[in-house]
Design a protein that fits this description.
The protein contains five helices and no strands. It has 237 residues and is mainly alpha-helical.
Length: 237
């Protein structure tokens, strides 16, 4: 084997390694850019949905759990799917379950924005279609209306029964129990005010007899002078 052949082989190996490294770096940069775009669009959707704290849209995995809550699906189910995707023997099934769960969540969020299901066909375009869908919801004129019909899985283990601070609870959601020391249910409106009590005609009624304070003596008749008191009897000293 000639020295020239060995040198040429080493050159080819180094060139292939460099190309692979550049491709990996390019893919990593694309992933970062894609994640930033998706997080920004999620932030706009969360704003319209009433989620407090824009930072929630930028935290990996957590932003997916928040989106699951807006889609009436338990975030713990979604977290379990994500964890299962990292296990070699379960990653294929977890990938299929993740796609199904995401479509279900997106269908509910889409309906709460008043959009029809054909809009979800954008997902066939891959990440680009998801970005377009989030952009339509976040920048469109449609308002988030959570008071819609319950999800078909509302009575199953898939339903969201959690309460997280800063994330609105969906109407009709069956939570895991009221918080300790919470407030009682508010009364339904104000009651009718009572009419004022006035004394009857002719003055107040006389006080009841038996143990009551006797009335004061009647004053003398008008125009008469009361007689002076009688002098004491007996001799004057």
């Amino acid at each position: 084997m000639s020295v020239t052949y060995l040198a040429y082989g080493d050159y080819n190996s180094g060139l292939e390694a460099a190309i692979v490294g550049v491709l990996y770096l390019f893919g990593f940069l694309l992933s970062i850019i894609g994640y930033l775009i998706a997080s920004f669009l999620l932030m706009k959707v969360f704003d319209k949905a009433g989620v407090q704290g824009r930072w929630r849209a930028w935290v990996p995995i957590y932003n997916t759990l928040v989106l699951a809550k807006l889609g009436d699906m338990s975030p713990w189910i979604v977290l379990g799917i994500i964890v299962a995707g990292a296990i070699p023997l379960l990653n294929v099934l977890a990938g299929i379950a993740g796609i199904v769960a995401f479509v279900m969540i997106a269908w509910r969020v889409n309906a709460k924005f008043g959009k029809d299901w054909p809009l979800l066909l954008l997902f066939l375009l891959g990440p680009l279609g998801i970005w377009i869908w989030l952009g339509i919801l976040g920048f469109g004129g449609a308002r988030f209306q959570p008071a819609i019909a319950p999800a078909p899985w509302a009575q199953s283990f898939l339903a969201d029964k959690t309460v997280w601070n800063g994330i609105p609870v969906q109407p009709g959601q069956q939570v895991q129990g009221p918080p300790a020391g919470g407030y009682a249910a508010p009364t339904q409106g104000y009651g009718q005010p009572q009419s004022p009590q006035y004394p009857p005609a002719g003055g107040y009624p006389p006080p009841p007899a038996g143990g009551a304070t006797p009335p004061p003596p009647a004053p003398p008749a008008t125009g008469t002078t009361p007689p002076p008191p009688a002098p004491p009897s007996g001799p004057q000293v």
